[in-house]
Amino acid sequence: MFTIITGAQFGDEGKGKIVDLLASEYDIVARFQGGDNAGHTVTVGGNVYKLHQIPSGILVGASVMIGPGVVLNPFSLMDEIKMLEEKGISVTPEKLGIDAKASIIMPYHIALDTLSEVSRKNKIGTTKKGISHAYSDRVLRDEIRLEDLLDEEIFRAKLKDIWPAKAQTIAKLGGSPEYIMPEKTISEMLELGEKLKEFAVDTSQMINQSIRAGRKVMAEGAQGTLLDVVHGTQKYVTSSSTIAGSACTGLGVGPSRVSNTIGIVKAYITRVGNGPLPTELADEIGAHLTNVGQEFGTTTGRQRRCGWFDLPLLKKSINLNGYTELALTKIDVLTGLDPIQICVAYELDGERIDYPPLLTKDLDRCVPVYSEMSGWTENLENVKSFDDLPENAREYVTAIEKLCDVPITYVSVGPGREQTFKMAEVREPEIYCNKFARGM
Asked: Which pathway is this protein assigned to (predicted)?
């Protein structure tokens, strides 16, 4: 069994929590793209874990892997391992495997990322973690891989070829290259390579062997579909492919192996950084979503932009990922808002459209068309089933399911592991949709 989980919006949908919830049913959880620019926050028994590169399946004892599609920061990875061990979670080679082909984020990548963003007139909103430059070097065949850190002679030979051009570019951008790769840093990276040597594996071989043996494997994505480097809102995207198909290339697993794809969807929508967000709310409702939902980035701490649920964007995500099911998160954050709006279409140049336009500049001009629903005031933190939800909350969940034409299998009503319930297999959605016609 091979399950792929991706974020269906702009990231921060709660993927870490859902992976943590489901991981106990899987033998392996593998990360297939991105770097430490992404973050998954998981709350377990009062402890808050902020993971940036290690899959959150580690929290329930699953074996976890970091695939070759990932760009790896060895410094922050070691910090993560230390954090987990301090909280009583042992990270051993039996529990964590890192593909030897994973690209390494070098100090000069971080310097170039920071200097490039500062020099841009129109900011992208990068996390300045060096991700884009690490991926660029992969395409240019100038990358440093984990396997290179395991051999000092090869590592130093590659640096000798790569470093002069990097130093020149850093200097042109106003940086000081002498501080980027001193001998001390090179020695530290070689020491990290020695520590990580025992974790180096061939993830493609191990995952395919596991699937053939009948074991269950989950592929965990970072960021969200709408930040995909090809299909997202260019140029305000991440530097990797965030859609389900990327799990096959990022882990080395053929598409015929895929069993199901799960999309994680927030009950509203958020975005970090620049780029279009048609339903953005710069008012007291937006402030409510930000404060109640604690919408601040796991990696950067930046405040997320918030808006009403956007159906046209989700339709695109469904097409790009081929979702077989959805998990709906943070419905509790909507408590106290009345009415609640769902964006069901856009108006663009006087025409109503129900799917995002091709061009990012046109999406930025789209005006949301809303359907209005009644809200609820009841506290949801102790809700354990769909039937325990207030009637209007049930109506909201079912309306989204009906509009998406994809079954919602999990609903989250709070940050805790225990605050997510599985939907019953048999439901009567029509009885909860009697009010939804308003505004359609």
From this structure: Purine metabolism; AMP biosynthesis via de novo pathway; AMP from IMP: step 1/2
